[in-house]
Amino acid sequence: MKVGGQQIDDRIIARIQEMIDANWDISRVQLSRRVCEGLKWRSRNGRLKEVNCRKVLSRLGREGKIRLPEAKRFGGNRKPRKEAEVVAAETVKSGDLKDFQPVELVLVGSADSEQSRIWNELMDRYHYLGSGPLCGAQLRYLMRSEKHGWVGGLSFSAAAWSVKARDQWIGWSGEIREKNLNQVVGNSRFLIVPLWRVPHLASHVLGLAMRRLRADWKGRYGYEPLLVETFVECERFEGTCYRAANWLELGQTQGRGRQDRGHSRRTPIKRIFVYPLQAEARQRLCEGMLAPVPASGIPAAPQDWAEAEFGSVDLKDRRLNRRAVEIARDFYGRPQAQIPQACQSRARTKAAYRFFKHPNTNMDDLLEPHRQSTYQRIVEKKIVLCPQDTTSLNYSTHPATENLGPIGSTKEGIIGLIVHDTMAFSIEGTPLGLLDVQCWARDADEFGKKHQRKQRPIEEKESYKWLRSFQSVAEAQRHCPNTMLVSMGDREADIYELFHLALQDPKGPRLLVRAEYDRLLEDGQGHLWANVAAQPLVGIQEIHVPRRGPIAARIARLEVRFAEVTLKPPQDKSQYGPLKLWAVLAQETDAPEGIPPLCWMLLTTCRVCTFEDAIEKLAWYTKRWGIEIYHKTLKSGCKIEQRQLGDADTIEACLAVDMVVAWRIYHMTKLGREVPDVPCTVFCEQDEWKALVSFILKRPIIDGTPPTAREYLRMVGSLGGFLGRKCDGEPGTKSIWLGQQRLDDIKLAYLFFVPQLRPPPVPGAYTYGAG
């Protein structure tokens, strides 16, 4: 196990106990020093890691793994902290930065120094967080003006352990983050005495601090940091001085704890800013990571597919890691079964329920290895489409389930969870894997507050889900720089902040959204729809419209127009400025009677200069329907809405496994159409195809050539009701998941009977009658 950053095993515990027994009468402070010296626990600057060691000893003692002497109590002779004399302006004063110069930063020394007392007094008097405590390694500075004395202060201390937007921007793994996090420092306090109003003073001071921080940190701790981070509360500050000082804004914190599925936001939402202290800070922070190895777009064989998608999961316990793989195999073998049916034994069923209730089995950690495998499938493609969509999970039939929320249009209506996910697809429509999954329960108290929507920042709205998913696609883009990723959304994604985010990084993913609003354009161009409709017709494009309910599938002929447009920001979003996009309008002119004609207005960050560019974007958008098919597979094929697990947290853990199983079924179905002639062994094991062929042909197959992928999937589909007539096409996901459920039992029977069908071995020499 790992305690206080140290890897502890039984050998080290035994050695620590030997040191304790040999030094039983000394204090725990002295004991920690002896243990550090004996085990060579030192920081980069050569100092003993005494504080960490005391944490290790304390935890091992609480867990009963070592015996510690009683803690010694010493007399309370410490003197109270002396208040410092802080001279500051008594009334609000303003001025120019030039009149304030020179301004210098004074490095605060020991905790007993006069500068330390001044720093504490300033923070306690004027900063809303006070003077501390500050965590880990730290530096403090006072700001002094030659003319006006002490005018503020700032501090740098240990970085936050896990911040999604920062970790995505860096691109490091959990293991490398643990190793290199000490090279990130946090700007934990920044204060200018509020009685001074001096434009540009804050950004000037930040510049001074960034220029000397590396040298000062090395002087105290023996190494140079690579990155500085800070968090700015959205409700209190805008973060203008950080932007002016060239800090990068990465996004916002989620404003909720790790287990806060109901979005109660117990902590304020904060803007995340970072400042690289070296040009190659991100690359150096990722040192030690293995480069992604390109893998075939075809999944591994079934005996290995669960290993490929869950094998590298890190749940802080190897038993949990192994159980995740086993549960995935069980769920895949019987996708429609309840947990006891899928696990097929009392012991495995109890283990599955314990697994989903374990505090370490959260959705993000369970999906991380699948996300990494998805990156490997993406790197082999030139273009990958990443539609995102929202669906709801209805648990009204399980009213005892805790921490659910309303999912309908009324507060007292149906209850369940909301899921917003992003799936990567090849341009042929084959699903490559999940890039982002968000799951939450709506707060019933938020109903009836629609009139307040425009007064709230995007970070506090449910629509922020679209920006979060786009950031996840941006993370995938950084891992796969030679592939163009395109994030896609339906009309609900017509959000000005999303367009602004997509245009920030020219190396980031592209965006393609179906427009909902007739937005006003810049420079007297009028409104969006009228402007694009007035453009000349560039061609006619036919597209296949799939069946929807009672409306039959059909071929629609669309008139295509396009234009480059500049959107004017809404009045309440003027800070984002005008945005330049390309618009593609496709209108159906001869729809069948009684059927509303198709009319798509697509907005994209991709350049559209020709008719071919325009129809390419239309073809991309038609692939967005793939994520709706995936949601149908998840609900109907994996029966996630029938899971009875007691509370929302446990459902989320189970949902993570079900979502990967649903992807696997969908992927297999599409792969059989994309590469129909490859051997079926690319996605199934030998015993599985032999059992299937034996069952279909009604005779045992001991050896032979495996069928093709298309033949195999048609046989699996036939077990699920696929008839295979000329008009039936290829089997869909429903017949595959139904057939897969039967195939698992057929394979078990085959494995039981086949050893009895094999001929007995014949000896190589005549030994009959040998005596």
Q: What share of the residues does DSSP label as strand, in percent?
A: 15-25%
Average the pLDDT over all residues and give the rounded result.
82
Total helical elements: 24
CATH class of the largest domain: Alpha Beta
Please summarize the sheet with the most strands: 10 strands, mixed
Low-confidence stretches: 75-79, 290-302, 765-771
Helix content: 25-40%
Give the termini separation.
Answer: 61 Å
CATH superfamily of the largest domain: Transposase Inhibitor Protein From Tn5, Chain A, domain 1
CATH topology of the largest domain: Transposase Inhibitor Protein From Tn5, Chain A, domain 1
Question: How many strands in all?
Answer: 21
Radius of gyration: 31 Å
Q: Can you tell me the overall shape?
A: globular
Task: Find the structural class using helix and strand composition.
Answer: alpha+beta
CATH architecture of the largest domain: Alpha-Beta Complex
Q: What's the number of domains? A: 4
